[in-house]
Amino acid sequence: MNQRGSMNRKFNLGLSALTIGLVLASGSVMAYEKGDFVVRGGLAMVDPNDDSSELSLNGTGLADTSVSVDDDTQLGLTLTYMFMDKVGVTLLGATPFKHTVTAKGVTADDLKTAEVKHLPPTVTVQYFPLDAQSAFQPYVGVGLNYTKFFQEELTSDFKDVLGDGKIKLDDSFGYALQLGADYKLSSNIVLNAAIWSIDIDTTATIDLDSGSQIKTDVDIDPMVYMVGVGYQF
Ligand code: NI
Hints:
The protein is mainly β. It has one domain: Porin (Beta Barrel), CATH 2.40.160.20. The chain contains 2 helices and 17 strands. It has helices spanning about 5-25, 155-160, and strands at about 35-45, 50, 55, 60, 65-70, 70-85, 85-95, 95-105, 110-120, 120-125, 135-155, 165-170, 170-185, 190-200, 200-210, 215-220, 225-230. The strands form 2 sheets. It has an 8-stranded antiparallel β-barrel with strand order 1-6-7-10-11-13-14-17. Strands 2, 3, 4, 12, 15 and 16 form a 6-stranded antiparallel beta sheet that branches. Strand 6 and strand 7 form a beta hairpin. The longest helix is centred in the first third of the chain and has 23 residues, at about 5-25. The N and C termini lie far apart (about 50 Å). Bound molecules: nickel (II) ion (NI). Nickel (II) ion (NI) binds next to loops.
């Protein structure tokens, strides 16, 4: 396609998007006002942007070692209460996430070290900038996360190399930032997509039965993605 054709095509696409936007925005559904509740359920994925210190053995650093954490998807639930027009407070909850912690640089290959579960309840205050008549309701949020780790267990791979022991991950408090959007299909039903950036930092401590202790600081700092449907009441 020549340049002029391409420009026209982009212009037409732009106009179509604008038209759709206006049609959507002119729907008669009312959006969020003071006193409203919205509950949303869907799939939530925790995708770590992990970074760790080197591992230490009895307080001595082990050069070129680190750990990584894989992602996991669970059922997510959010509940929003609008305590003002355009301003709400939201709690994010989920079924427990399960992650594999892998150590690098300890053995020739990556060493699967532990399985851990966590719950990351997160509270954000959200601002909905668009008018109540808009079916499309984007929002931004800022808040706090508390992450509780539990059922931490060393893998058999790890025990084969370093022997049995116990692993513990410290709980984490940190900030949470959020972007999301609801699209109202009717006066009660919404489609939702949301992203959180959450600060989760922990220290993992392994006490080996041999008496040695392995430690590392891990910044998990995940993005959390959720898509789902919601109900306003
Ligand atoms: Ni962090």
